[in-house]
Amino acid sequence: MDFDPSWLLISLPVAFVLGWLASRFDIRQLKLENRQAPKAYFRGLNFLLNEQQDQAIDAFIEAVQNDPDTQELHFALGNLFRRRGEYQRAVRVHEHLLGRGDLSRSDRERAQHALAQDFLRAGLLDRAEAALQKLEGTRYENEARLSLLAIYERSREWAQAAAVAQKLDESDQASYSTRRAHHLCEQASEQVAAGDLAAAGRLLSEAVALAPQAPRPAIDSATLQLRNGDGAKAFGTLVALSDTAPLALPLYAAALQQAAVAAHREGEALTLLQRHYAESPSIDVLEALIALGGSPTNAIPAANGQPLAPRDGYIAHLAQQPSLVAASRWLAGERFEHEQFHPQVQRALDQATRPLMRYRCAACGFEAHQHFWHCPGCQAWDSYPPRRVEEL
Where in the chain are the domains? Predict the structure, then answer.
C-alpha cells in the first residue's frame, strides 16, 4: 500500500493543536495552584503585620496544606506558634521538618535551632540542652553555646558552665575570663561546703590567675585564708586588691579589718581605710574603721578640743552626706532623757534602715540584703554595685 503524503499534512497540524491545548491546560492548572498558595501566604502575612496572629496562623496552615513541601511556610508557622506560647505545636512543626529526608543541610540546622528555641521557651531545659548540643559544628554553634551556658548557670552546674565558657573564650568572639573565674569561685564554694579546703584553694588560685583584675577571686581567697588561720596572707591579698579594685573596698572592708587584727597590722589597715574613705565615703568602710578603733580621719576634734570616740565617726559621716543608717547607728549607743522609750525608737529606726542596707541589681532592680555576684533575678553577672541602696 502506497503512503499518502496528504495524511502527514493533516496529522501534523492536529498533533500541534493537541500539544498546544495540553500545554495550555497544564500552565493554567499550575498558575491556579500557585495563585492559591501565595494568596493564602500573603493573606497570612497581612494578618501578621496587623498583629492578628490567630488569623495569620489559619492562613499559613491553609498555605502549608496547599503546598506541604514549602519549608519557609513551616518555619513561619512554627515561629508563630512559639510567639503565641503554643510550644507543643511549634515542636511538632519543627520535628516534622527534621523528619523530612529531602531537607537541605542548611534548613536542617535551622530547624534544629528552632526546635531548641521551642524547648527553651517552654522551660524544658533537659530537652533544650540535648537539642542545643546537636548544633555543635554548625553556623548556630556560638548561639547554642551561649544558651547552654545560661542553662548550666541557672541550674548551677558550674563544671559544665566552665567548659562551655572556655569554648566561647577560645572562639575569640569575646572575653569570658572573668565569667570563668566566677565559675571557679562557685566550684570553690561547693568544695568549702564539702570540707575540702585544699581543693577550694586550688580552684581559687586558678581563678585569680585567670582574672587578676576581678575582685571576687581575691576576696574569696582572703576569706579562705582567714578560715585557715593565715591572717597575714589574707591581709596581703586584700591590700593588693585595694590597688587593683579600690571601688570594691566596701565589699571586703570587714574582711580587711579581721585580717588586720589577726596579723596585728591594725595601723596599716587604718591608714588604708582612711585614705579610701576620704576618696569615696561608705558606711561599710566607716564601720571597719570603727571596729579598728579609728575614725574617718586621724583626729576629729569635739567641741571641747578632745578627739571623738571611734563610734562618733558616724557624726563625721553625717557631716559629709545625710545617712539614716549612720544616724541610727550613732543613736543606738546614746543615752537620752527618756531612756525608757529608747528601745522602741531604736526598733523603729532599725526597721526603717533595713531596706537602705540592701544591695540592688543595676540590671533588673532585684534587691537583697547580701551582695550577689550572680543576680538571682535576671542571672546577670557583676550587676550589683558594691554600695548599699542608701549610697546609690
Answer: 227-321, 354-392
The backbone torsions φ and ψ at residue 367, rounded to the nearest 5 degrees and listed phi first, read -105, 145
Distance between alpha carbon 15 and the CA centroid of its chain, in Å?
A: 73
Residue bearing cell 581605710 = 273
Distances (CA, A) of 119 to 110, 136, 165, 253, 283: 15, 17, 22, 45, 46
Computed on alpha carbons and rounded to an integer, the radius of gyration of the chain in Å comes to 35
Buried b (16+ CB within 10 A) or exposed e, 31-54: eeeeeebeebbebbbebbeeeebe
Between strands 367-368 and 359-360, the pairing is antiparallel
pLDDT at 307 over 80: no
Name residue, grid cell 491545548: 21
CA 160, 166, 169, 170 torsion: positive or negative?
A: negative
Q: Is the pTM of this model over 0.85?
A: no
DSSP string, 10-25: HHHHHHHHHHHHHHHH
185 is in an annotated binding site: no
CB distance 313 to 296 below 8 Å: yes
Could you give the CA distance from residue 259 to residue 269 in angstroms, rounded to a whole number?
A: 9
pLDDT in tens, 333-368: 766 666 676 778 778 878 888 889 999 999 999 999
Question: Residue 353: what pLDDT?
Answer: 84
How far is Cα 76 from Cα 97, in angstroms, rounded to an integer? 12
Calculate what percentage of the chain has a pLDDT beyond 90.
48
The residue whose grid cell reads 562557685 is 186
Expressed in angstroms, the distance from the first to the final Cα of the chain is: 112
Mean pLDDT to the nearest integer, 8-25: 53
